Amino acid sequence: MDSRYYSTLKHKDVEEPIDLWFYRPMGFRLALLGEKYGWTPNLISIVSIFLGVGAGLLFYPQDWRLNLLGMILLVMADICDSADGQLARMTNQYSRLGRILDGASGDVWFLCIYVSISLRLQPEWGWLIWVLSLSAGYCHSTQAALADYYRQFHLFFVKGKEGSEWDDSSHVEEEYKSHSFASAPLYKMFLWVYLNYTRSQESATPNLQAFRKKLIAMPKDETLYSSIIAESRPLMKYCNILTFNCRAITLFVTLMLGMPWLYFMVELTLGDLLYLYLWRKHEKMCARYSRDIQG
Could you tell me which residues come within 8 angstroms of residue 213 by beta carbon, excluding any fewer than 6 positions away? Predict the structure, then answer.
């Protein structure tokens, strides 16, 4: 891979080993095709949504061959999910809509996956499977949102505002109010979803928000930034566990074992324990730095 490939990566601190080994190289090749034929990152994001939905539908039958085909489609969807961001970085095609579609694609995949598995297990489990899947789905969404937020928090200190997507809900709200349903109904709806997503991230991290306000009000302190990077960097590998790859591997194993309900249990136990660990570490860290700034 040439230097152009490396320029499409986010940063070594937040890149996962499986991504660097497989998804990023494959995504880069697809991004090169996109650049050659004039595809937009948003087009690739939409293709990834269809692939992910197709994968979810193939997890409904109790047939390992169809389930395996579903996993192949899910891998293809994630290659597209990698390629859209890489193409955006290659061609400087950044947009709020692109950020929203990139985040929403994974949500749509897993929504379809959760519904398909629940319908598959309903004859055996009855209504209890819906309680289990809804609980796991809620935990999944909160875990993924927090992991994404902390990764963007880290990238802000490593690469600056331009290299991070650490959004502020007040800015998103300004853009939301600047559009009307009459002129852009679909984009307005996407912004509403993203505004609530951003607000949920902020409401879950009160100490981080207090620290952010103080950080914005002061000039950049290189020593402070270096300290935060050094403390935040070891936590990124745990944030990565709450993203796609570990979930996909867990899903694949439980499907091949014929026990997809076990995937939900992993979300509710190991996933939540890791979520609480990351939340506690970041909140304590931000509270300490807030006190240091105040002092």
Answer: none
